[in-house]
Amino acid sequence: MRVLVLSDPHGAKWKVRKLITESKPDLIIVPGDIPSSLDFPILLISLMKRGMRGEYTKQAYYRYVERITFRQIRTAKRILEALGEFPEIPVLLIHGNTETEETRNWLRLYCHRYNNFHWIADDAIEIDDYVFVGFGWVEYEKQYSKYTSPGEIDTQHARLILENTIKMASYNYSRKKKHILVSHNPPFGYVDHLPHKNIHAGSKLVREFLLNGTFKGVISGHLHEAKGVHFSDEFFALNAGAVINSVACLLDIDEQKVTWYNNLVSPISLSRMIYKFRNDVNYSK
Fold first, then answer.
1. In the chain, which ranges are E strands?
2. Residues spanned by the domain of 134
3. Per residue in 43-59, pLDDT tens?
């Protein structure tokens, strides 16, 4: 199965039609952070207050949540309409850590407009020999996070959601099928290294269920700088990078092969430039 993975578009205007036509995928997966999470006036306010990530999160998701939700829905709609031009290709979608609750609800409902769209956040779907399980949440430890984005929840809550989703998938679909986790966050220790911080920032919860054999593979994004793939006899782990950083990939699950695509977003896109140099301005997830 050839899977086109389009992670972290963040509302980017990109060459989606050309990419799908050229890559000819059997399936498209979007592992979250679909809409834009940048609002330039709010970003300016945050910088004027001499705050970076924490200040922007506080302003965007605590004080101006209606404003950022409106922008998220507007930019997500453009992306979904472009993907909807290929009704013959199934599209699996989950949220990431940046979508507000209202945006998540809108995305789930909007997917009903297209017969080939499947919103699998906290859900699962069987396609051919595979069962794809969706998990968009990013877990955190309460004592380390003062301000969090909407898709971040504490580890205990995240574990409960993932365990319940796994039970549901195991009940509804055969364990003889290969179960693949579509996770926003990659597993800890695999395709999750941030070179500018020299740390591994992936999910220990996702790694646990990957190593215990629950899943034969994980398809993810989230950590833009850590794109890559790990193949072994037991499992695979893919971090597809970020469309906003002009990167996507085609994963051949059966052949364990990945083809990377670049130059998807204009280099003069302001959003792309901010994400590309977000470490320099201390603006990161």
1. 2-5, 27-31, 91-94, 117-119, 124-127, 130-135, 138-140, 152-154, 178-183, 193-194, 199-200, 217-220, 228-231, 236-239, 247-252, 257-262
2. 2-276
3. 889 888 877 778 888 89
